[in-house]
Amino acid sequence: MRRFALIFAAAAALAAASSPMAAACHNTESFDRWLAQFKKDALAQGISPQVLAEASPELTLDPAIIRRDRGQGVFSQTFLQFSDRMVARYRIDNGHLEMKKYAALFARIEKDFGVPAPVLTAFWGLESDFGSNNGKYSILRSLTTLAYDCRRPDFFRTQLFAALQIVQHGDQRVSDMIGDWAGEFGGMQMTAADYLKNAVDYDGDGRRDLIKSVPDTLASAANFLKNLGWQRGQPWIQEVRVPPNLKWQEADINIQHPRSQWIAWGVTAAHGTLPNDSLPASLLLPMGRFGPAFLAYPNFKVFLGWNSAMVYSTTVAYYASRLAGAPPVSRGSETIVPLTGPQVMELQRLLAKRGFDVGDIDGKIGNATRTAVKKAQLEVGLPADSYPTLDLIEKLKAQKQK
After folding, report:
1. Domain count for the chain
2. Distance (Å, rounded) from C-alpha 39 to C-alpha 45?
3. Which CATH number do you get for residue 280?
4. What is the pTM of this model?
């Protein structure tokens, strides 16, 4: 699901990138010694000798995977740039075709799990183009390589154990374990651990097959979303219009107000109506106060649970809303010039020097950086819409020089 280090950026062949992430570690242990110990640990955890023997030809080191992992580009596209690319007309048309083709299956899944067809179809479309692009790498080889590598060994070691358990349970054969270079696989590009925890046998053949079985794939995704907290019958996002004099500091994914309060502050529906009720919602401004605006309801947090990258989560939620009948999003009132990767890193350094927590200084505009931006905007007297701008950089630099 590309929740770690924005792996989906590479899969989508995004053009915008800055300096590659620097690897701060070096592998010193021999791979053969590491692998021998891993196999002992796998046996101790209940992986059978037969499964280990079957998997052994794939438990090898691929240096190209390490280079690819460490050379990921910084994700710097705006919501509109990314959503224009990913929610293209063909994906909307194909999404509607898939919803029609599997209408009875989607209806059964919604009855059982509470997740509607547009949401599942949006994830299915963005993750793998409805199962047509699941990846071409050996999952076991990729996970072995990344579990050995020093950068994130604990996470990938867990994934490798889970992948072997999937084989042991009979859900997949070693030869079928093909997917993305970072270890996700199937139509929903699940990690092995999420597969093991959330997969369901929905076609009744005795296997939880998230590679070749459409019923298993869709139902398992619905089960995962339900386990993340999906609320049956509730919305996820709704496009709105915002007044120029809004209390911008209230526009924060971590701040919720009843819809009635947003209406009292002058927020209106971009299309249709905005019920004057107590349903909690956050105001989401993915490109600041001059860009598109959404009310994000509690179900939007489930999208972030699937993928913590805000641009991706907003895009898939928007895609789901389009499949549910919403019109194209507004382009905003002004031309918005996004910061480049190096500019974001400069801003992060300035914020960190002022004592703000920005997370890693990596050129990525994550939740920590947006929170720090909001606090800095309040300090320097800018509208606190949490969106990083050149104006904020210049004001921080000017204050530093005084």
Report:
1. 2
2. 10
3. 1.10.530.10
4. 0.90
How far apart are the C-alpha atoms of 101 and 107, rounded to whole Å? Answer: 12
What b-and-e string marks burial along 285-300, b requiring 16 or more CB atoms within 10 Å of the CB?
bbbbbbbbbbbbbbbb
Query: Residue 305 corresponds to which tokens in the numbers above?
Result: 């649970």
The CATH number of the domain holding residue 385 is 1.10.101
Structural domain includes residue 179: no
Residue 372 belongs to a domain:
yes
Q: Which of 268, 297, 323 is at the close of a domain?
A: 323
pLDDT tens track, the chain, 402 positions:
643 333 443 333 333 333 344 446 888 889 999 999 999 999 999 999 999 999 999 999 999 999 888 765 545 678 999 999 999 999 999 999 999 999 999 999 999 999 999 999 999 999 999 999 999 999 999 999 999 999 899 999 999 999 999 999 999 999 999 999 999 999 999 999 999 999 999 999 999 999 999 999 999 999 999 999 999 999 999 999 999 999 999 999 999 999 999 999 999 999 999 999 999 999 999 999 999 999 999 999 999 999 988 899 999 999 999 999 999 999 876 678 889 889 999 999 999 999 999 988 888 887 889 899 999 999 999 999 999 999 999 999 998 665
β-pair type (137-138, 280-284)? unpaired
Rounded distance, CA 228 to CA 230, Å? 6
**Which residue type sits at 332?**
G
Distance between start and end Cα atoms, the chain: 46
Give the DSSP letter string of 133-169.
----EEHHHHHHHHHHSSSSHHHHHHHHHHHHHHHHT
How large is the C-alpha radius of gyration of the chain? Answer: 22
C-alpha distances in angstroms, 189 versus 166, 220, 279? 15, 11, 32
